[in-house]
Amino acid sequence: MENGHRKPPAASGQSSKIRLQYKDEGDADANEEVATESSNLEDDSTMSEAGDDKTSADYYFDSYSHFGIHEEMLKDVVRTKTYQNVIYKNAFLFKDKVVLDVGAGTGILSLFCAKAGARHVYAVECSTMADMAQQIVRQNGFSNAITVLKGKIEEIELPVAQVDVIISEWMGYFLLYENMLNTVLYARDKWLVHGGIILPDKASLFLTAIEDAEYKEDKIEFWNNVYGFDMSCIRKQAMSEPLVDIVEQNQIVTDCQLLKTMDISNMHTGDVSFIAPFKLLAERNDYIHALVAYFDVSFTKCHKLMGFSTGPKSRATHWKQTVLYLEDVLSICQGEAVVGTLTVSPNKKNPRDVDIALKYSLDGQNCQVSRTQFYRMR
After folding, report:
1. Nearest to 272 by CA among 374, 175, 153, 168
2. Which candidate in 32, 37, 169, 211 is catalytic?
3. Phi, psi (5° rounding) for residue 342?
């Protein structure tokens, strides 16, 4: 890992990554796509009403009002160029169609769609960035093709009864952090015409295991002895918060396992909660200090399959990867397996946070261990 760069996700939203590469004709660089960890930097979800206790939702929308987070997303070439390629190289999906952009941010996806020939685009953005998006649309001459609507998807009214296409960059760290997916599903159920399409329409979460002794010692074990004082109570908190950072490919000890694939066109809101079994097979003799989650996203309705990965073997994105440190250091031999289950659900108090329960065991030649750990992405 790149020491000094790892940090836990904040309420404002930050970013997570095995590797998937989809290339379309030409623009090889642009299409070596990789995505990492949760960060729906241009997204739209639910906002607390005035007078409510301030929650992560309030900070969430506030964070998207600042241009800096949008700059990070726009400069993520894997992310932004993938969407651009999907739209421009599959203009038949957008030509003369009515499009809904959920969580439009600066309006970049709406601009792509309008340029590709969409009849009209409704760009919905809840943060004050909607005001800037409106100005951007006007400055670029698309006022007749794009309507910017400021508000929550769950509360706004569209001027039309149905839309042909829903497009959104809803993914967060660990895919599900910030819980924007449910907002997309709400829009789908309310406005998408029968036979309409959602982009992207598939998202898959993966798991692998890494050696990470140096960084774990520096960031986790540090709290056991701080200038001669026991601060291990902070260590417990540090262990319970997944870290979002770049994982180096040479740290990977095991194969990777698909945990969950989400079919955005057909899934239900409750499907964001799940229990997934896993079996990670060691590819060499080594130590395991953490499990790492990342996601891939696919646009299967295109003329040619397109998408990106946020995995450690792919080009880095602002999502990076999500690191779950283990209490135990696992000494594993090639061919042995770490088995267990990962339970994922939105936090009951703040649904934009993600609760993760990890149950794992290893019955190896040099190490026998069984444990359950709990994490919260906040």
Report:
1. 175
2. 169
3. -120, 120
Catalytic residue flag (residue 169): yes
- Tell whether pTM > 0.85: no
Specify the 3-state DSSP secondary structure of 273: coil
Using CA atoms, how far apart are residues 268 and 270, in angstroms rounded to an integer?
5
- Count of CB atoms situated within 10 Å of the CB of 328: 14
Q: For the segment 308-330, what is each residue's pLDDT rounded down to a tens digit?
A: 999 999 999 999 999 999 999 99
Q: Is 178 a catalytic residue?
A: yes
- Choosing from 37, 42, 125, 178, the catalytic residue is 178
Contacts of 229 (CB under 8 A, 6+ apart): none
What 3-state class would DSSP assign to 217? helix
Nearest to 4 by CA among 266, 214, 224: 214
Q: In degrees rounded to 5, what are phi and psi of residue 220?
A: -110, -55
Q: Please, which contacts does 51-55 make with residues 24 or more away whose CB atoms are closer than 8 Å?
A: 55/349, 55/350
| Encoded amino acid at 108, one letter | I
Structure tokens at 262: 């989400």
Phi, psi of 39 (to 5 degrees): -170, 90
